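Reviewer 2 asked us to include a model.

Predict the structure of this chain.
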Amino acid sequence: MPNSLDAASDRDFVCELAFTIALAGIHLSQWAEEWILYSSEEFGFLLLPENFCTGSSIMPQKINPDALELSRGKSARLVGNLQALLVLLKGLPTAYNRDLQEDKEPIFDSIDTLEAVLGIAVPLVAGTRFNRERIAAGIHRGHLDATSLMEALIAEGVPQRTAHETVGKLVRAAMDRGVALSDLSDDECKAASPAFTPAVRDALGPAQAVARMQSYGSTAPSQVAHQLARWQETLADKGATSS
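Predicted model (structure tokens):
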């Protein structure tokens, strides 16, 4: 290092590593929270591997997603370690001070904690199954294709404001009857807007709505496939480099 005082007292690299680990922990915590929610009885979208869960101490029918809950909780520890390092440094004068020996415990603990969480996350993801029937049954609720219907009307030359109002009326009609937008007849849709054509109807349905999202990085199946291929190539290159 070009400055000897800085060389003796610098702990920026420790804080930067602690921040990176803490941020990784935040992302893992968000993932864990979503999977805890989606594996609950109310959603039932995910079937977690039982070897990463425990039974309830009082309710024999209950399965607790303990590994996910602990992964979520560990993020607080990682953030706390980062905070401890920053507070440790903020009041020190220039050059080495014995206080700096206190940097070891939080940074080593952060490294060990992240390794432990990742060690659980990888096999947990690999062993999880999607309850596709439950997901398919739930995805039709909420009229998720309303926005794509509005965009299809706009593509037919309908002003956005008018298209928004038209689709809102169709959503209300579908809600009153307890059906999906795609269940509304052509006559009902044309009564709401003369611009309703077969091409516009093709925008209806969750699958069609997702497929219409064609921008880079979107949720369209073609874009998801592209991202999967990119990550497989990236991870394969990193694996080859490390070996």
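The chain has two domains: 4-137, 140-211. The longest helix spans residues 12-38. We have added this to the supplementary material.
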